[in-house]
Write a structure and sequence with these properties.
- By secondary structure, the chain is α/β, with parallel strands linked by helices.
- The strands form three sheets. The protein has a six-stranded mixed β-sheet with strand order 1-2-3-4-5-6, covered by helices on one side.
- It is globular and about 45 Å long.
Length: 212
């Protein structure tokens, strides 16, 4: 088994959690949701001696992908997103960049992923889940070996993501949590796009938005 570590920095004006999943044996890192401040994220990786091998987006809103292009230029790492999110990533109105950043930001992923796809990046196994509701192509990335899921803005501690943006749906987000994320082991660490960490077991017990 690889020696994996998880850490995070907040980035951008909306304080997005940018997560680092690192194979400490090879010093290779995956970065989830670089919402901004790419140079800060790159400096953090370099300070720790990590080589960035992948940039993974949970969804296409600018506060989660606003630093992806610059980070890719700094690291050479490919960008990954779910196939269903392509249209939003390429539309500066629906990805909210013209509202959040007051500039046009679009990202075209190097590889578009499918629901249920299994990836191995930097020697780390990931399973990709389509978890729509916050956006049409929202993705959650599960690492069984690290016992964690990167949930973006689908699931928060005792809350769920907003569904009032273009393409959002509260019924879809509740279904994504109940049927997909709640199928993961109770001890799974939830690494969300904003706020504090939680676990699947805690959310099953205490999240008021997804109670039966």
């Amino acid at each position: 088994m690889a020696n994996l570590s998880i850490s995070s920095l907040t980035a951008g004006s909306l304080a997005v959690n940018c997560w680092f999943l690192v194979n400490e044996d090879t010093k290779e890192a995956l970065i989830f949701d670089p919402g901004g401040e790419a140079e800060k994220l790159y400096a953090y990786a370099r300070k720790n001696g990590w080589s960035v091998k992948g940039i993974l987006l949970t969804h296409g809103h600018a506060d989660h992908m606003g630093g992806a292009k610059e980070l890719q230029e700094l690291t050479g790492a490919p960008v990954y997103a779910l196939q269903e999110e392509k249209a939003l990533l390429l539309n500066a109105k629906t990805n909210l960049s013209v509202f959040i950043s007051h500039k046009v930001i679009t990202v075209n992923a190097d590889e578009y992923l499918k629901d249920g796809q299994e990836l191995t990046l930097a020697g780390i196994g990931l399973k990709v889940f389509h978890t729509p509701g916050h956006t049409p192509g929202g993705a959650s990335y599960y690492c069984q070996e690290a016992g964690c899921v990167f949930s973006g803005d689908t699931l928060f501690q005792a809350s769920v993501g907003r569904s009032d943006f273009p393409g959002g749906s509260m019924s879809q987000i509740v279904r994504s949590v109940r049927e997909t994320l709640f199928a993961l082991p109770d001890e799974t660490r939830v690494c969300p796009g904003h706020g504090e960490e939680t676990t699947i077991g805690y959310e099953k017990m205490y999240n008021p938005f997804v109670q039966g």
